[in-house]
Structure formats: structure tokens, C-alpha cells
């Protein structure tokens, strides 16, 4: 039986989070009425000219720096010429020969915690096309140009991945980087990250690559995994049956979990790239690049290391908490309020994550703010409330009963009683009410008393409605029962 | 009134000799009476013009008159005008009304200038005779059997016939200078990047440049001051202070070094044109200038390089005319491909199609290096030729075109038509400014002297032209056409 190796390369289109389009002042907001966010430039009206959005350049440079890439001093916009109704000018302004981001690398983490590096071939800036709407137009096609001119950063990897899992880990790593940098919202459902997957197979040990198929527009982590799995199986079966893989573009059908060949065009595409004469070459000097570097936030890998080394978290905890910028920022805010990284980590990964998962919420949508959670942890740490009461308080915060842990503790009377006199009073009452148990306790061996005292502790806690400090109750009870 | 220059009319308005309304009305009357023979206008915007004239008169009465307040002029129909059709001389845009003004139109408006309408042109600015217009050819007012030149033929003919004192044109390979020469007026192509291209329908983006066409260099200076300058909407416009061109017109020519490119006086140059140009140069010598011969060794490569680069850019620039969003659309397309094919087959004229084909071919895989990249290399050599020459001399002079205006229909072969631009085209490839100044006649048809200067030396160029016009009266000659109408 032949052993096969899968080879995967990815082209990921990341929609940059600029306010306006890459070459015009029109808004990039998602979900507006068709054609309400397309100005004369986006419509490709006669005489209009593009003006490069400097924010898109800054974002691309930050991405380049985050993946250790070279930032060439000069990059160039070119025109990719083809006719399509949702491409208003008859060309897409893109980059080819001289992209803004040169070769770099991304570290990916696999499920078993191991890491490896995937090389980036380059990343380039380009404008998005509009959308062709084929439904609801009675045999005609509607064109929505709101998306036309939205800035995209196309990140092209080397064919360095060897499994669907690695491909997914790579996309997740890119997702973390772009959301950390704040250069994209990373919302895959709205098309903010779209992947073209190049897949081929080759006999294990063979150096030459097999013929690849390109699967277009695979737009979720899960679909990437499924599309690759299907495609690998298809190609292996095809070859083992004596066939050949043809280089082609395929489409993933998420309803059937399969890929299908797209209608091959009769003539080969010739995009007739040439430098766009309306845009000057982009020149970035060292000072500009340094300035962008200085503006960059801490990246996931750096954060993970800091959580581990400086905050003393476990490698696992550090990895989970650093996996998204929102999670990391939440955790750090909790830590800053309560002053204890381990407690903060436990609560964020424990109670908070459980609640978020149950209600299918992102951390950004958490009803409990980092300040509230930090305040709650403080009260546990200074013994104001017991750990048990803390869970009640958390749930009350989640349900929005009060604005702060303190307010809930106050309203529900959950404050631990540490007044010895008050506790003694309750103990005396319990002892007076439990003559049989007291007698049994006093007759028992020292070795059995430890277990038996639990009954009395329970009674006292019940009498205090959980507010008595358990340690204090324990030691005072011991004193009083052991007297006599 | 129609014989006066822009500067004289400005003085007349200021002195209250006539109002802008009277001035514009008289020009509009003249257009109505004479343009049937000339065909220099595609659209005449009478109502808007009179409203603008009234507004200018009111502003002047209020003591608030801007530089061009109340002065009539015309715009080549390549400049987008909000609410007024911008056809670009093409059936494709016969129905196109832009929702915005070109930057230069905006600037003219802000300066109080009154547009009387949009002038005829070769379709998409592709041509040297104005015979490639969907709206029919323009006649040369000096001889109605002759072409006015192109592509800004309508603007040149309108100024020469005294329909307007000035007009805006565009110049991609000589389209301001050659018609200016053919019609006996003054036309300036500014340095690439001096004037915003925003709202100017693109032909070849790296070569296109808008500029003034008028009777005198002084009028061109007044107009250039108004339209020049950096525009945030055009990344290729240059952020450089716009000089006060009018103030620098009187700079003395003593010691001016003039270079005569020997390549501009070779085979194919009409002897009468050569005589007129050499006489003009003698005038300069008499004004204290020194003349020497220089060489621009790559001149012979300019036309081949241009006819690779310009069509390449045009093929891409004109892709947007697909019948989907604006402009001509074929009837009842059966599918997408049919929509594209018939829309473009019907909407574009022969010369435009020819250049789209050439451009598409030269950008194709397998030909790109041999054509496009090679042409770009040649372009750099041509630019270097000029830079080297300007190390030796201040300005270059020669004929604007090899012949005077030719007869309508005389140039049947596209290549012989392309050769019309032999002295003008290299200037666009190099990006330097050039001006054509009336310098005599060949028979009854005007001859233009072309003066070229280094990048952004428009002030010098205008001064050199102005000094010539102080010493000669070629720019004051008027055609017999329309004379009976005072």
C-alpha cells in the first residue's frame, strides 16, 4: 500500500479594518443596502482616480513585521485586467511583481502543543470586487458594489503544510495575528478572512510536488479541514485508480462536504498585468517601518512567553489565554484589578469560560466585565466571602443583578462573619441543640473526632447562612467541644 | 469683442465697458451663427452660461471678482462637468452625464470663469485631425477644407474663430500643441503632474495632461495659474507651489540659450514650415538669445514607444465601458459576453478599437517584455535625451508639426497620421512642458513654433513665448471666417 503525503499551500485574503476603502473615501462598513457605499471611484466612472489609503499600507506593514518579513523599500500597484460585471473598472488594482510584504514566517501550534514554522511567500495589497447576486432577480443578476474597493491583504504561504490540521492551525495563527494587530476583525462569516487552498498529494519520500487543485473561497476553519480531507481522498483515489490530477480550480460545497471542479474556461486567463499609471510606487523608508513597529501591540507568541515566564502561568494556561487578543486583554484586566495572575487565570478559564461556552458567547460579549470579575476575586482573596459564596456572586453578576461584587455581597448578606463573639454564640446554640451528638463526639477517639466535627461545622454554617468563616468555625468548635 | 484676448476682456469687464452677460451673450450668438460650419462644439450650455455670467456680474458689483470672473471659455468634452454631458467624442458616452466636476472645471468655476460649452474632439482623445469624432469632424477656420488638428481640435478651432477667447484642451501626444499650431493659436502642455487629471476622462494616464489654449501666452499664463496645482484626488499631481506665471512673463531673453534639435529639422519637414520656424528663431536672436544645435538621439523611437505605451494604458482604461453601469449599452443582450461584445463594437469608433487591440496585444503574455517593457526603457532614454539637452541650453525650439494643417480626409493611413505627432510625442514621454506659438503661415495655413523647457519650467516657457509675441504679430492674425460678424 502506497503511503501518501499531502502538500498544502494557502492564499488567505484578509479584509483590512480601515474605515474607508483602499482607493476611495467610501465607507467599508458591512451589511449596508446594496450600492449605498460605492462612490464614483468605486463605480469606475470616467475620469476618476484612485488615491491610496495610508492606513491600509500601515496595516500591511504591521502584518509584515509580525511575521518577520522583509518590508521592501518600494512596492508597486499593478492592474489585473479582466472583464466581469462586479469588477467596475475592468481591472483589479493589485500587486504582483513588487508586493508590500516580502518573505516571512508564521509559527503554528498544533493540538498536541508542538509548534512549527510555515513560510510566507509574500503578502500583497489589493482591492476587493463587488458581489454578483444571482438570487431574487428573476433570471437576471444583481450587482452590489458596496464591497468594491474594500482593502484586502492577500497572504500567500509556501506549500509547507502537510495536513488539514496544520492548515487550520496556520489559519488560526493568521487569525490571531491580524486580530491582535487590530488590522482585521477576522470575522470569517462576513468574509473578513477568505481562503483559497492549494492541495496536492505525492508518494511519501518523493521530492517533486504532485499536481495541485485550488479550492476557492473556503470560509471557515471547519470547511478548510473538510475541504482538504475530501480533496486529499479524491486525489489519492484518482491516482490509485490510474488517473491523473488535473490542475484546476475547484469549489467547496459545504452542504455536501465535497469539492467540485468549476467550469473550465475555454481560453486561458491572461490578466495582462502592468503597473498602474494612476498610482505612484509606494516607498517606505526605515523610519516609517520603525514607526509602525513601535505602534504594534504585543503579539500572541510574545504574550504567551510573558504569561509563562513573568506571571508564572502554566504553558497550557498561557497558551489558552494568549490565543486571542480579546481573551488576553480580559485576563490581564482581571489580573490588574485583583492583583493575582493565577486566581485571574483560574476564574477566566473556569467559571467565566464555562458560562461563555454554555451560552455560546465570545469573551467580548461577556455580561461580566473584567473589572467586576477582578473585584469578585479580590473579595475571595481578602476573605470577605467564601469560595462557595463567590460562585453565587459570579452568577448574580452574570445575571446582571448588581453592578459589582460588593453590591451583591451586601445585598445578599454574604459577607463572612469573622466576629468571634458572634460565631461563639452560634456555636453555643448548636452545642445546646445537639446533646446526643455532643455526647457521641466527646466519647469518641481523637482519631474519629475529625470526621465527626463536620456535622457541627455544617450546623453552624447553616445557622450563619453560609457567612461564618469556616476556618474560624472549625477552630472555635474544636476548642469548645474538646473542653468539658 | 471676439478679437480680444482674455486679458483684454478681463480689463474691459473690470472697467465696466461691458458686462459678462453681454460678453457671453455675444459669444453665444457667434457660436450659434458660425459653429454650424465649424462643428467645434458638441454641447453649448447657453442657460448655464448666462446664469454664471449674471452671477459673475453680481460678484463684480459686490467688489468680489475672482481672476477669471465673467470670462467666457470652452472645455474640451473630455473634462467631466456635473449635470452636463461629457461625451469624450464617443458614441459610448453620448448619454453620459457625470455626477461631478473635474478638478480643473471646479477651479475655473471658483475663479469665476464661464463655460459656454463642451468642445469637439477625437474620440477618447485618439487622433491628430479631429476626424475621429462621433459628432463629425471639426473644420479649420483658416480653411474649411482643412482639419483643425487633434485631438483638441474643437477647442483650437473655437478659439481661432473667435467663438471663445480661450479653451481647455488635453495633450497626450501633442493634442494641445498640434491643433494650436494648425489653427494659429497658443497652446500649452504643462509638465506631467502640474495639472490635476481628476475628472479628465483617461486615455493614457501616464501621458495625459490638461492645459490652456488661447490667443496669447499671457492668456495661457492666466489660465494655467488657475488650473495648476496639487490635487489630493490625483496621486500623480505634484505638490509644488504654483508660480505667478503672469508676473514672470516679462523676463528678458538676453543670454537665453536656445537649442535646435537637429532631429526636428530633418526629412519630412515641410519647407514652408521650416522657413517660418527659422524666421521665428531669428527673432529670438534679435532679442538677445543664443542659438545652437543640439541632438535628441532617440527621437526616432518616440512614436514606436508611444504607440506601445499609450494603447496599453488605453486598453485598460477603456475596459470600464462595458455597458453595465453607464454609457452605451447594446439592445437586448442574450448573455454577458454578447453584452460586452456588442456594446463595445457599437460604442467605440475604428481608431479607438485599433488602439485597444494594439494595447491588449502588447500587454499579453509572451509580448509584454518585447513591447511594453522595451517601450518603457525607450521612454527613459528619451527623457534622458531631454535632460542632457537641458544641461546645455535653457529651452528647445522647433516646429510643432511637420506640415501645416492638411485637408480633411487626406490622411488615409493610420501610420502616416501617427507621424503628425513626431515632434510633440516625445515631450509627453519625457513629461516636460511644451508650448506652440503662432509663427507665420504656409500658404493660408498657420505654422506653429514649439518651445520646450525642463520639468516645471512653465514660467520660463510662457515668458519665452510672451516675449516673442511682444516682438511679432502672428498671434494677432485672424482668419477671414466669421470676420463679417463683428
TrEMBL record, chain B:
Pfam families, per the entry: Amidase (PF01425)
Self-association and partners: Heterotrimer of A, B and C subunits.
Catalytic reaction(s) noted: L-glutamyl-tRNA(Gln) + L-glutamine + ATP + H2O = L-glutaminyl-tRNA(Gln) + L-glutamate + ADP + phosphate + H(+)
Function of the protein: Allows the formation of correctly charged Gln-tRNA(Gln) through the transamidation of misacylated Glu-tRNA(Gln) in organisms which lack glutaminyl-tRNA synthetase. The reaction takes place in the presence of glutamine and ATP through an activated gamma-phospho-Glu-tRNA(Gln).
PANTHER family: GLUTAMYL-TRNA(GLN) AMIDOTRANSFERASE SUBUNIT A, TRANSAMIDASE
Protein name: Glutamyl-tRNA(Gln) amidotransferase subunit A
Organism this protein belongs to: Chromohalobacter beijerinckii
The gene coding this protein: gatA
The UniProt record lists the keyword Nucleotide-binding: yes
Top-level enzyme category: ligase
Amino acid at each position: 500500500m502506497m503511503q501518501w503525503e499531502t502538500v498544502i499551500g494557502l492564499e488567505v485574503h484578509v479584509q483590512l479594518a480601515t474605515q474607508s476603502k483602499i482607493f476611495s473615501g467610501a465607507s467599508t462598513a458591512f451589511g449596508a443596502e446594496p450600492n449605498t457605499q460605492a462612490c464614483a471611484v468605486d463605480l469606475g466612472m470616467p475620469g476618476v482616480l484612485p488615491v491610496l489609503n495610508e492606513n491600509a499600507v500601515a496595516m500591511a506593514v504591521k502584518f509584515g513585521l509580525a511575521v518577520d518579513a522583509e518590508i521592501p523599500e518600494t512596492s508597486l500597484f499593478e492592474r489585473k485586467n479582466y472583464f466581469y460585471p462586479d469588477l467596475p473598472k475592468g481591472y483589479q488594482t493589485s500587486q504582483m511583481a513588487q508586493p508590500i510584504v516580502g518573505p516571512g514566517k508564521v509559527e503554528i501550534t498544533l493540538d498536541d502543543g508542538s509548534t512549527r514554522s510555515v513560510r510566507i511567500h509574500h503578502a500583497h495589497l489589493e482591492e476587493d470586487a463587488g458581489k454578483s447576486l444571482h438570487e431574487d432577480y428573476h433570471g437576471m443578476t444583481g450587482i452590489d458594489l458596496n464591497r468594491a474597493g474594500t482593502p484586502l491583504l492577500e497572504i500567500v504561504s509556501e506549500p509547507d503544510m502537510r495536513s488539514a490540521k496544520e492548515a487550520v492551525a496556520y489559519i488560526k495563527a493568521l487569525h490571531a495575528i491580524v486580530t491582535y494587530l487590530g488590522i482585521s476583525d477576522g470575522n470569517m462569516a462576513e468574509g473578513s478572512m477568505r481562503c483559497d487552498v492549494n492541495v496536492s498529494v505525492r508518494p511519501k519520500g518523493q521530492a517533486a510536488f504532485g499536481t495541485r487543485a485550488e479550492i476557492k473561497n473556503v470560509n471557515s476553519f471547519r470547511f478548510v479541514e473538510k475541504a482538504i480531507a475530501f480533496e486529499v481522498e479524491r486525489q489519492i483515489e484518482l491516482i490509485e485508480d490510474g488517473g491523473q490530477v488535473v490542475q484546476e480550480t475547484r469549489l467547496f460545497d459545504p452542504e455536501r462536504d465535497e469539492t467540485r471542479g468549476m467550469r473550465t474556461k475555454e481560453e486561458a486567463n491572461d490578466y495582462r498585468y502592468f503597473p498602474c499609471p494612476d498610482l505612484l510606487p509606494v516607498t517606505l523608508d526605515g523610519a516609517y517601518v520603525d514607526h509602525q513597529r513601535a505602534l504594534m501591540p504585543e503579539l500572541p507568541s510574545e504574550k504567551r512567553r510573558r504569561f509563562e515566564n513573568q506571571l508564572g502561568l502554566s504553558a497550557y494556561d498561557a497558551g489558552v489565554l494568549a490565543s486571542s487578543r480579546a481573551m488576553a486583554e480580559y485576563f490581564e484586566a482581571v489580573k490588574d484589578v485583583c492583583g493575582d495572575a493565577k486566581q485571574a487565570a483560574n476564574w477566566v478559564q473556569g467559571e467565566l469560560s464555562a458560562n461563555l461556552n454554555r451560552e455560546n458567547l465570545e469573551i467580548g460579549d461577556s455580561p461580566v466585565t473584567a473589572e467586576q470579575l477582578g473585584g469578585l476575586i479580590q473579595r475571595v482573596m481578602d476573605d470577605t466571602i467564601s469560595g462557595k459564596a463567590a460562585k453565587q456572586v459570579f452568577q448574580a453578576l452574570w445575571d446582571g443583578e448588581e453592578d459589582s461584587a460588593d453590591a451583591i455581597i451586601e445585598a445578599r448578606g454574604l459577607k463572612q462573619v469573622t466576629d468571634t463573639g458572634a460565631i461563639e454564640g452560634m456555636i453555643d446554640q448548636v452545642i445546646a441543640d445537639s446533646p446526643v451528638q455532643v455526647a457521641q463526639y466527646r466519647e469518641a477517639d481523637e482519631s474519629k473526632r475529625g470526621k465527626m466535627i463536620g456535622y457541627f461545622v455544617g450546623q453552624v454554617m447553616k445557622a450563619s447562612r453560609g457567612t461564618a468563616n469556616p476556618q474560624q468555625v472549625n477552630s472555635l468548635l474544636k476548642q469548645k467541644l474538646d473542653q468539658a | 469683442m471676439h478679437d480680444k484676448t482674455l486679458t483684454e476682456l478681463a480689463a474691459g469687464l473690470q472697467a465696466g465697458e461691458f458686462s459678462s452677460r453681454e460678453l457671453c451673450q455675444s459669444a453665444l450668438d457667434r457660436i450659434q451663427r458660425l459653429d454650424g460650419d465649424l462643428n467645434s462644439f458638441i454641447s453649448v450650455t447657453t442657460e448655464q452660461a448666462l446664469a454664471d455670467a449674471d452671477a459673475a456680474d453680481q460678484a463684480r458689483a459686490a467688489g468680489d471678482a475672482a481672476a477669471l470672473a465673467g470670462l467666457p471659455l470652452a472645455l474640451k468634452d473630455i473634462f467631466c462637468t456635473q449635470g452636463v454631458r461629457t461625451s469624450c467624442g464617443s458614441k459610448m458616452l453620448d448619454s453620459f452625464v457625470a455626477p461631478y466636476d473635474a478638478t480643473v472645471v471646479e477651479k475655473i468655476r471658483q475663479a469665476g470663469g464661464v463655460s459656454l460649452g463642451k468642445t469637439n474632439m477625437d474620440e477618447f482623445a485618439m487622433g491628430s485631425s479631429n476626424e475621429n469624432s462621433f459628432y463629425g469632424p471639426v473644420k479649420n477656420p483658416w480653411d474649411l477644407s482643412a482639419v483643425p488638428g487633434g485631438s483638441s481640435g474643437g477647442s483650437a478651432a473655437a478659439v481661432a474663430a473667435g467663438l471663445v477667447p480661450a479653451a481647455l484642451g488635453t495633450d497626450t501626444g501633442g493634442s494641445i500643441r498640434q491643433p494650436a499650431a494648425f489653427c494659429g493659436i497658443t497652446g500649452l502642455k504643462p509638465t506631467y503632474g502640474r495639472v490635476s487629471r481628476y475628472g479628465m476622462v483617461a486615455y493614457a494616464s501616464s501621458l495625459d495632461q490638461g492645459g490652456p489654449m488661447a490667443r496669447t501666452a499671457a492668456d495661457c499664463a492666466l489660465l494655467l495659474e488657475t488650473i495648476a496645482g496639487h490635487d489630493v484626488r490625483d496621486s500623480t499631481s505634484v505638490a509644488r507651489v504654483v508660480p505667478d506665471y503672469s508676473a514672470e512673463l516679462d523676463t528678458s531673453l538676453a543670454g537665453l540659450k536656445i537649442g535646435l534639435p537637429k532631429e526636428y529639422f530633418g526629412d519630412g519637414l515641410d519647407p514652408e514650415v521650416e522657413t517660418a520656424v527659422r524666421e521665428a528663431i531669428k527673432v529670438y536672436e534679435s532679442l538677445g538669445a543664443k542659438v545652437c544645435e543640439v541632438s535628441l538621439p532617440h527621437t526616432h523611437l518616440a512614436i514606436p514607444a508611444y504607440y506601445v505605451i499609450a494603447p496599453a494604458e488605453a486598453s485598460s482604461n477603456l475596459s470600464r465601458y462595458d455597458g453595465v453601469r453607464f454609457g452605451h449599452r447594446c439592445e437586448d443582450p442574450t448573455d454577458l459576453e454578447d453584452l460586452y461584445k456588442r456594446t463595445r463594437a457599437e460604442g467605440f469608433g475604428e481608431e479607438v478599437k485599433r488602439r485597444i487591440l494594439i494595447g491588449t496585444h502588447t500587454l499579453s503574455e509572451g509580448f509584454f517584455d518585447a513591447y511594453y517593457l522595451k517601450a518603457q526603457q525607450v521612454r527613459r532614454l528619451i527623457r534622458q535625451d531631454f535632460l542632457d539637452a537641458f544641461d546645455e541650453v535653457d529651452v528647445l525650439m522647433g516646429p510643432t508639426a511637420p506640415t501645416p494643417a492638411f485637408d480633411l480626409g487626406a490622411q488615409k493611413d493610420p501610420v502616416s497620421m501617427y507621424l503628425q505627432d513626431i515632434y510633440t510625442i516625445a515631450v509627453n514621454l519625457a513629461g516636460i512642458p511644451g508650448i506652440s506659438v503662432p509663427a507665420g503661415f504656409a500658404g493660408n495655413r498657420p505654422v506653429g513654433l514649439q518651445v520646450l523647457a525642463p520639468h516645471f519650467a512653465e514660467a520660463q516657457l510662457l515668458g519665452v513665448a510672451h516675449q516673442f509675441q511682444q516682438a511679432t504679430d502672428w498671434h494677432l492674425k485672424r482668419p477671414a471666417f466669421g470676420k463679417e460678424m463683428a
